[in-house]
Design brief:
Layout (H helix, E strand, L loop, with lengths): L4 E2 L9 H10 L18 H18 L5 E6 L2 H13 L5 E6 L2 H10 L4 E6 L22 E3 L2 E2 L4 E2 L11 E4 L16 E5 L10 E6 L16 H6 L9 H16 L2 H22 L16 E4 L4 H13 L2 E2 L10 E4 L6 H18 L1
Parallel strand pairs: 1-12, 3-4, 3-5, 5-8, 8-9
Antiparallel strand pairs: 2-10, 6-7, 9-10, 11-13
Helix pairs in contact: 1-6, 2-6, 3-4, 7-9
C-alpha cells in the first residue's frame, strides 16, 4: 500500500514516532514485563509519568505556576456542563460568544445550569465581526468562546477583550498549535483527540483562584477542586490515553517546542490555501483573516462532484476528507502531526482531479 495521509478532524493522526514508541513499549513498559495499561494508576511508575506529563505540558505551553493542569474525562462536552457548575458565582450568569457549531453547543448545554446570554460574532461570510466586550463583560461570571471551529474552519486569532472578566476557551482543535499567553485566560480546555493524543482524555488548564467554587450539587467527578486535590485521579483515569499524551508532549519538546510547530502549521495552511485560491474548481468560503490553520474547508460547488472527489481521494490514500454533515463539502484537518508532505500530496491530487473534472 502507498503511504496513507489521514485528514480526520478527530480522532486525528498522531506522530508516527510516538506510535512507534508505544508499539515498542506495549508489552514491556518501564521493564515491568507488562503494558502501561496493566499497571496501577497509583503505582510508582504511573505516578511518575503523570507528574512528568504535567511538568512537560507546563514547559511546552508556558503555563504559569498559578494555573492547575487537570487530566479529565468526558471530552469537551463534559466541560460544557462542568464549567457553569464550577465557575458561576454571585452574578449567576455567563456570556457565550458563538462563532459556529461547537460554541453554540456549549451555550446550549450551559443553559441547563444558569442564565446564559449569547452573542453571535460571525457573519454570513464566516468573518468574525466583534471581539471587544470590555463594556459588558463585567456583568458576567465568565465569558466563553471557541477559538477554532472545526466544522466551518473558522479561527479567531486575536483574544477577545473581556476586561477583568474570566475568559474561558474551548481549544479542543487548536491547543498546542501555536504559542499563546495563558495568563489572558481564566481557563483553557481541550479534548485530546486532535493535537494531544487519543480520544478519552481531556486537558483543563485553570487559574487556581477559580477552583473551589463549585455549586454543592456538582458531581465530584466534575468538581475541579476535588480533581485537583486528587491529582486528577479521583477515579481510575484513562491511563493509556494519558501515557500517549505524555509521549506527545515529550516528542514536541524534542522537536523544538511550540515555536517550531507554529512555523510548520503556518506553512502547511498557507500552502493549501494558496492552491485553493488559485484553483478554478475548488474554493474556500471563509474570510481570509479567519481561515483556520487546523481545519481547511473547501467545496467544488457541486455536491455530486464533492462526493466523487472524496471517494477518489480515499482510494488514493488521502483519507477522511469528507466535510462534516452540518456543512458538507470537504475538510482537510492538518493538525500538528500532519507533515507538509501530506498537504503536498493532497494538492497534487486536487490538481489532477481539477484537470479531469473541469
Amino acid at each position: 500500500m502507498s503511504q496513507v495521509f489521514n485528514f480526520s478532524a478527530g480522532p486525528a493522526m498522531m506522530p508516527e514516532a510516538v506510535l512507534a514508541q508505544a508499539q515498542q513499549e506495549l508489552l514491556n513498559w518501564q521493564n515491568q514485563g507488562t503494558s502501561v495499561m496493566e499497571v496501577s494508576h497509583r503505582g510508582k511508575y504511573f505516578m511518575e509519568l503523570a507528574a512528568q506529563s504535567v511538568q512537560d505540558l507546563r514547559q511546552l505551553y508556558g503555563v504559569p505556576d498559578n494555573y492547575e493542569i487537570l487530566f479529565m474525562q468526558g471530552g469537551a462536552r463534559g466541560q460544557f456542563a462542568a464549567i457553569p457548575m464550577n465557575l458561576l458565582g454571585e452574578k449567576g450568569k455567563a456570556l457565550y460568544l458563538t462563532s459556529g457549531h461547537w460554541s453554540a453547543t456549549a451555550a446550549k448545554e450551559a443553559r441547563n445550569f444558569a442564565e446564559i446570554d449569547e452573542i453571535n460574532i460571525v457573519d454570513d461570510n464566516y468573518k468574525i465581526t466583534r471581539l471587544d466586550f470590555s463594556d459588558i463583560a463585567s456583568q458576567y461570571d465568565y465569558v466563553h468562546y471557541c477559538p477554532n471551529e472545526t466544522i466551518s474552519g473558522v479561527e479567531i486569532f486575536d483574544v477577545p477583550n473581556v476586561g477583568d472578566a474570566v475568559l474561558v476557551a474551548d481549544m479542543s482543535s487548536n491547543i498546542l498549535a501555536r504559542q499563546i499567553d495563558i495568563s489572558q485566560f481564566g481557563m483553557i480546555y481541550a479534548g485530546a483527540q486532535k493535537n494531544l493524543g487519543p480520544a478519552g482524555i481531556t486537558i483543563a488548564i485553570i487559574r487556581k483562584d477559580l477552583i473551589g467554587k463549585a455549586r454543592k450539587s456538582t458531581p465530584s467527578i466534575w468538581d475541579y477542586a476535588v480533581q485537583s486535590k486528587a491529582d486528577s485521579m479521583i477515579n481510575t483515569p484513562p491511563t493509556f490515553a494519558w501515557y500517549l499524551c505524555a509521549l506527545v508532549f515529550k516528542h514536541m519538546l524534542n522537536e523544538g517546542g511550540l515555536r517550531e510547530y507554529e512555523k510548520r502549521n503556518a506553512i502547511k495552511a498557507q500552502t493549501l490555501y494558496d492552491y485553493i485560491d488559485s484553483s478554478a474548481l475548488f474554493s474556500n468560503v471563509v474570510a481570509k483573516e479567519n481561515r483556520s490553520t487546523m481545519n481547511v474547508t473547501f467545496v467544488t460547488g457541486n455536491p455530486e462532484l464533492d462526493a466523487k472527489f472524496v471517494a477518489e481521494a480515499t482510494a488514493a490514500g488521502l483519507h477522511a476528507l469528507k466535510g462534516h454533515k452540518v456543512l458538507g463539502g470537504m475538510r482537510a484537518s492538518i493538525y500538528n502531526a500532519m507533515p507538509l508532505a501530506g498537504v503536498e500530496a493532497l494538492i497534487a491530487f486536487m490538481k489532477k482531479f481539477e484537470t479531469e473534472n473541469i
